[in-house]
Design goal:
seven-stranded parallel sheet; four-stranded mixed sheet; alpha/beta; 11 helices; Rossmann fold; 40% helix
């Protein structure tokens, strides 16, 4: 099968490349390398087709889409730090770029998977979060929610095109996906904590550490994505993809210190000092995975200790 991955040099995109090549597929990627990295795909040299470009380039997107059987749309401007520092560019990429990808898939009648995010739910306090739950979003002056709003518009456009024009699209919402190749540069907590622990530097927690999250190993997220892509009964549907083992951020820091035998100390900083302006956090974010299990039988296999172990090994 010929597969196009937008954002294929990114964290999840590069792991999708690995899995698809192992199956014998022909893989092409489109990436502008704004948050992706050539390092993520350096081991795939001469095994994949690499196109350096932007998803807002309509002519290029249509050209690549016309040659593919399946499009995995992973490209996005993401990461809290990046969103807060570049909200206009992020909105443009996540709305207009995705519109071009969606319309190209419709034009050539291609199967399409679009990567959305648990940010869709905002700060909805009703946990765990199911696909039909309401969005609870803060004021526009809290700039972090621009990412949630942009991805919500992308999802709505995809659903409209499915209803109106039979676009063969499935939407997936990733919850805190972690693993090798993920950088802490954009605010991702586990690689940031692990890197500090391995160098015995302070582990800095934003807020008081009582906020709780669930983390999913990237290999589990990849397997879920490909299972959904292979099933026609998932077309027109939205699915959470996430992990297990809910944990508070302070307990996460202590677990990482323990697993790495680190001498790091835990320190705390306010959100205002960490992000300056436009940030707002939520206390819990836990996925309800009953829908994807019902449709496909998929469940996450790897727990938090295995996730941390793999991230540690990727840094050493």
């Amino acid at each position: 099968m010929r597969i196009l991955i937008t954002g294929g040099a990114g964290f999840i995109g590069s792991h999708l490349c690995d899995a698809l090549l192992l199956e014998g597929n022909e893989v092409s990627i489109l990436d502008n390398l704004s948050t992706g990295s050539e390092k993520n795909i350096s081991h795939l040299k001469d095994k994949i087709w690499v196109y350096k470009g932007d998803i807002r380039d309509k002519r290029l997107v249509e050209k690549l889409t016309s040659k593919a059987d399946l499009i995995l749309h992973m490209a996005a401007a993401l990461g809290v730090k990046n969103i807060l520092e570049n909200p206009i560019e992020s909105i443009s990429t996540n709305i207009f770029g995705s519109e071009i990808v969606l319309n190209a898939a419709l034009k050539y009648k291609r199967r399409l998977i679009i990567a959305s995010t648990s940010e869709i739910y905002g700060k909805n306090p009703n946990q765990p979060l199911s696909e039909g739950d309401d969005r609870v979003i803060g004021t526009p002056q809290k700039l972090r929610w621009t990412y949630s709003d942009a991805k919500a518009l992308e999802e709505a456009t995809a659903f409209h095109l499915f209803i109106k024009s039979k676009l063969q699209v499935t939407t997936i919402r990733f919850f805190n996906t972690v693993g090798p190749r993920q950088t802490g540069e954009y605010g991702m907590v586990i690689p940031r904590f692990v890197k500090a622990a391995l160098t015995n530097n302070p582990i800095i927690i934003h807020g008081d550490g009582s906020q709780k999250r669930v983390f999913c190993h990237v290999s589990d997220a990849v397997s879920a994505t490909l299972i959904l892509a292979r099933s026609n009964k998932t077309i027109g549907e939205v699915f959470n993809i996430g992990g297990k083992d809910e944990i508070s951020i302070i307990d996460l820091a202590n677990l990482i210190i323990s697993q790495t035998n680190s001498k790091s100390k835990i320190t705390f900083t306010s959100y205002q000092d960490a992000y300056k302006v436009g940030y707002e956090d939520m206390f819990r974010r836990v996925p309800n995975l009953s829908k994807i299990e019902e449709f496909t039988g998929w469940r996450p296999k790897l727990g938090l200790k295995e996730i941390i172990k793999d991230v540690v090994n990727s840094f050493t």
